[in-house]
Amino acid sequence: MNFPVFEAVMLVCFGMAWPVSILKSWRSRTNKGKSRFFLLIVFVGYLSGLIHKLWWQERPDGVVWLYLLNACMVAVDGILAIRNTWLDKRRDG
Fold this sequence. Notes:
By secondary structure, the protein is mainly alpha-helical. The protein contains 3 helices and no strands. 81% of the residues lie in helices and 0% in strands. Helix 1 runs parallel beside helix 3 and helix 2 packs antiparallel against helix 3.
């Protein structure tokens, strides 16, 4: 099986946005304008791609690591969104 170059490029491009989002979530300390539902949808998408690579391919390629890395970054952003929601409630309440 050939290396899926275009799939890797897609994941790298999508993955470049997550460090920026994580940094913004960390610095802003607010969840205003952030959708936890959107993060959940993206997280499920990355997990689905990862499961597909591991379950249905005889020999998973290196793109598995990109799916895993992106899923981890979305999870971190999701955890920060939960923290920021808690901070918002504390600040507003």
